[in-house]
Amino acid sequence: MVKDALHEAEDRMKGAQRALEESLTTVRTGRASPTLVEKLMVDYYDTPTPLMQLATISAPEPRLLTIKPFDATSLKTIEKAIQASELGLNPSNDGKIIRLVIPPLNEERRKELTKVVHHRVEEARVAVRNVRRDVHNDLREFEKEKIISEDELKRGEEDLQKLTDKYIEHVEALGKKKEEEIKQI
Predict the structure, then answer these.
(1) 104: Cα separation from own chain's centroid
(2) Is residue 74 within 8 Å of residue 40, measured between CB atoms?
(3) Architecture of the domain defined by 2-25+106-183
(4) In this structure, are residues 62 and 31 in contact, taking their beta carbons and an 8 Å threshold?
(5) Interior/surface letters 93-132, b for 16+ CB within 10 angstroms, e for the rest
(6) Cβ neighbours, 10 Å, residue 48
(7) DSSP structural state of residue 47
(8) Per residue in 104-140, pLDDT tens?
């Protein structure tokens, strides 16, 4: 019972960590990366569609992204979606390909992005703690219903805390790594 609960907790904590990793890939650094725009939603024939399903996205240079739509008629809608996004990038197109020049980050923008990273890391920390709370309540319930002993409850609580500490550490490391990327000039 305790092992199952801890296994479930670890799966859910891994999920929170993966969600943070995916979320942080969309935060712009000074370097061009296709992950920056691939999940950007584009209104394609009145259906919100991720950009990666509509075009080939590549980074031929460290500060340039090229977006080649599979359907040339979607060029304008992709361009509008990029302009409307919070990326702060100005697309230019030649009728076939959209080019996104990634300007170096200024100090003010770096601070804003660092705040965004802090906020997302805190959300992940809260998610990990919520998993701990839920599983801890389950363990207490098991003990209350005499499914597990008091000793098993104590060991389970200790293991759960170790697991929580481990994932909080992972989440914070991801945040620090992203901050370093933002600070690089």
Answers:
(1) 22
(2) no
(3) Orthogonal Bundle (1.10)
(4) yes
(5) eeeeebebebeebeeeebeebbebbeebbeebbebbeebb
(6) 9
(7) E
(8) 778 887 888 889 899 999 999 999 999 999 999 999 9
Same fold, 2-25+106-183 and 34-101: no
Strand-pair partners of 101: 64
Q: What is the largest CA-CA distance in the chain?
A: 71
Fold of 34-101: Gyrase A; domain 2 (3.30.1360)
**CA nearest neighbour of 38 among 17, 61, 12, 58:** 58
What are the structure tokens assigned to 42, written together? 């584009």
Band of pLDDT at residue 30, cut at 50, 70 and 90: low
Q: How many residues belong to the chain?
A: 185
Single-letter amino acid code for the residue at 159 = D
Gap between the Cα atoms of 177 and 109, Å rounded: 17
Q: Spell out the alpha helix ranges (H) of 104-149.
A: 107-144
Q: Domain-by-domain residue ranges, the chain?
A: 2-25+106-183, 34-101
